[in-house]
Write a structure and sequence with these properties.
The chain is an alpha/beta fold. The chain is 31% helix and 26% strand.
């Protein structure tokens, strides 16, 4: 089969279209013929080597964290799916590789594709959907009537998180450029801040939750300050915490590293009486099934900016890296 492979780590490295063997199907795995794959900033970060201390992929390896496709083979222990099922998933770490014609992963990572959307739309959902779910529901426990600040509202996570927060009954503030204001308002944003002209910290006050996705340390500090006492900031970009290190089973010295990295922000959070969490989302087919129900009810709709052909996967990755994408970028494979 054909797959886009990272032969070495590096920001300037291009993925190579390579002929490789089909994945081996383990007893609990499904083999999926890829119809479409979502493209995420995480793909660039993995290729760049930004996470190799925590998730040490050994080159060469296939990239890609989102998939929608058709089951073509099931492992001997698989009970949830059969050959011919249309599924979508964010395969767990070390099972990634959706920029390929086939991918194999544990059945617990997948669920049936929503009936009311196509493969490209389905492939845009898993990573951003699970990130939003685990941030707003699992960690922050966002409730009806609370206020949430979602940064970068027109991005992949932002476009999904705004809709999920509105479904939960929250008041939603977000940042975006003037050009993308109509988009985020159409998704349900109540207060939209032009980040090029306005300082969110001078406008927002007493928020219950912040979904943080900006790597600027000053933005993180200001984000903590817009929370009310007892509020929660969930960061998607770090710094990573000791709790994260423990959760993924890192060695003691890496736990120490994360403790040092997050010491300053946790100290500031404690001084303000707020909570700081770092999220590195996990694969979860059960949560994805809950998301499917929301999509099929029309509570959440996919937002896809561009669809690239498989052969242009590197171009798709470059477009995501530009930061101009409104919603998600997808490659069509099959």
């Amino acid at each position: 089969m054909k797959a886009f492979i990272a032969n070495r780590y590096g920001k300037k490295e291009k993925l190579q279209l390579t002929e490789v063997a089909k994945p081996i199907v383990k007893p609990n795995d499904v083999l999926v013929q890829v119809s479409a794959a979502g493209v995420n900033s995480l793909d660039s970060l993995i290729r760049n080597g930004d996470f190799k201390v925590f998730i040490p992929y050994k080159p060469p390896f296939a990239l890609g964290h989102d998939v929608a496709g058709v089951v073509t083979q099931v492992g001997t222990n698989v009970r949830k799916f059969k050959v011919g099922d249309e599924v979508y998933a964010r395969p767990a770490d070390y099972s990634i590789g959706t920029f390929a014609e086939y991918v194999a992963f544990h059945e617990n990572d997948a669920t049936l594709k929503p009936k009311n959307i196509n493969m490209e739309e389905a492939a845009s959902i898993p990573l951003v959907g699970l990130t939003s779910w685990q941030s707003l529901i699992e960690i922050a426990n966002l409730k009806k009537g609370q206020k949430v600040f979602i940064q970068a509202g027109s991005g992949g996570v932002g476009t999904f998180a705004i809709q999920l927060a509105k479904h939960l009954g929250a008041f939603v503030a977000t940042t975006t450029s003037e050009t993308n204001m109509p988009l985020v308002r159409s998704l349900g944003a109540d207060l939209v801040i032009d980040y090029k002209k306005e300082d969110f910290a001078s406008i927002l006050k007493d928020y219950d939750v912040v979904l943080h996705s900006n790597r600027d340390a000053k933005v993180l500090e200001k984000s903590l300050q817009v929370l009310k006492p007892g509020g929660t900031l969930v960061s998607l970009v770090g710094p990573p915490t000791t709790e994260f290190a423990q959760k993924i089973g890192l060695a003691w010295y890496l736990k120490l590293v994360t403790s040092l990295l997050s010491w300053s922000v946790k100290r500031k959070a404690k001084k303000l009486g707020v909570n700081y969490f770092f999220l590195f989302m996990k694969a979860d087919g059960k949560q994805l099934k809950e998301i499917t129900a929301l999509i099929e009810r029309g509570a959440i709709r996919p937002v896809v900016d561009k669809v690239f052909p498989f052969e242009q996967t590197n171009d798709a990755l470059t477009y995501v890296e530009s930061g101009r994408a409104k919603g998600k970028v997808v490659i069509t494979v099959r």
